[in-house]
Amino acid sequence: MRAATRAIFATFAIRLGTALVLASFATSGFGRAAELTAHEKQLAAAAKKEGAVTMIDASISDLTAHDLEKGFKERYGLGPEFKFNTIRKGTGPTVAQARQEILANKHTIDMVLVAAPGFFEAAIEHGALLKLDSDYWKDSEELAKKADQYFHYPYVVIPNASSFQPIWNSSCPGMSSFSANSYDDVVKPELKGKTIASDITKSFTYTNTALSLQENGVLDLEKFWHKLKATDPIVEFRTEPKMQMVISCQRPLDMWNLTGRAYQNIVKAPALAKIIKFGVYKEGQVMFGNQGAVLKGAPHPNAGQLLLEYMLSKEGTDVVIADEAVYSFRKNYKPPAKAAPYLFDLNTTKLLGLKDWVAAQKKFKAVRDEWQAVFQ
Fold first, then answer.
1. Burial group, residue 109, by CB count within 10 angstroms (0-12, 13-18, 19+)
2. What does the DSSP 8-state code read for residue 234?
3. What is the pLDDT of residues 149-203, one digit of tens each?
4. Which residue intervals of 147-287 are DSSP H helices?
5. Which range marks the domain in which residue 128 is found?
6. 312 backbone φψ class: left, alpha, beta (φ>0; ψ -120 to 50)
7. pLDDT score for 90
8. Are residues 263 and 280 in the same domain?
């Protein structure tokens, strides 16, 4: 048989085999194949053969990971034997592990989800990210642009986003009539001994929030840090320990926490709903997208792409927001009813971002040194 003829037959066989796999998947008892795009079906068939996926992130809780796994397997018919792995670390450690694997060219991670524009842009320049072909990113791109968020399609997208808000415990001494809807409200002299200073030296998201407030003319950071220092705050890094300080009245006000953290604690102890309050900054809410990408050389590249696509779909978005009370940039999106009271309206709230998230990283040292000079 001539080489050209053999090549034609080989190509035909591959296409026929793929068609049979997809047809088998579409008629299987798993998932809801009628709702899937052709690309999802193709990725799902390949992901099922790969048999596993591993995501590293800086925000997803154990409950969310469990619900994501359940919804992901059901939607794509992956079966109970498919292994769904998540690794949760802080922003810095998440970036450090992903960067280490890229530089060593030894991968255990498939997908990375973290708010770190500088890392993702460097990874693109290094040729370390897979090119995506998303059916769902187009539903989020417009609002992400409006909020001045970093993404770099077809390599980096934003499955969800967060924003720091003032959160307080109205049952604590001196807090019954307190409210906060501006940055002046959270540094009042009468709050001495009641506040928390978020340690920006350990967090990309705190630092970017500070830089956005400065760039958008909301705050003179140096003056603001001194006003906050005058309230004698406790310095803390992670949002959950800070939330526990608010709940216990150790420090009844945190100017930068996540309403999702309040929501998760209220689910566990419903009585907290009467006393845990939160506000929206009239100067604007700084949004920070949680960027997602798939590593080139990942052990399960199709599963990684499929998981990211699932998190961009309405079904996957609903899973995350129902558990985390974070934000989606999907057009005309309505969050699940149980999470909705903890979220402000992205269409009516003033949204702040950065003109250049990657260039902003070069300013980290200066703004952190300024903060450190005041608080340490």
1. buried
2. E
3. 999 999 999 999 999 999 999 999 999 999 999 999 999 999 999 999 999 998 8
4. 204-215, 221-229, 239-248, 259-268
5. 3-152+294-306
6. alpha
7. 82
8. yes
